[in-house]
Amino acid sequence: MKVLQSSVFRAFCAIVIGILLVANPGIATKWLVILIGMLFLIPGVVTLVIYMRLKFTTVASRPFFPIVGVGSILLGLLLIVFPIHFIEILMYILGAFLIVAASNQMANLWQYRKMVVVSPAYFIVPVFTFFVAGFLIIRPLEAVFTILGVMSMVYGLSEFFHAWHFRKVIPIQQKSTIVKASSKDAEVKEKQ
What we know:
80% of the residues lie in helices and 0% in strands. It is built from 7 helices and no strands. It is flat, with a radius of gyration of 22 Å. The two termini are 35 Å apart.
């Protein structure tokens, strides 16, 4: 169930990001950069607060100064304060995200082939997404964020479809993993 939920969540996020990028690429990219800055800032602040709380305790193993936490805070602040300077970098990050997501989708479909018949047509969307995202990273166009947004929505919709279509395969896959693990445990007990 967790696999299904994570793929549905991934699909939902991809569709939302795609809609935002298509609806208004300029403002959406600025806010995505600010959001990414917050995602760096918040864990950095939490790390620093935990360090400060533990610093004044009598614990024998006091933590070292959280250099990574401070770096995370600084990067988050830079992204929040100067989002326009990082928008070009965001294009490459979104393109890389789509490449990784499409690769993951192809790998999942390949796994499903071991349990059910999977038509080659299912591979069309992830392969197309993979190549379009790669092309846009190598050769950016004027409407790159709009195209990435459309591809993000297409990826999200196909991920929803795959989660729905293969919902019965996922529990079978999890059960087979549990059966394999329990049979290995039984073999080890027999050898002892």
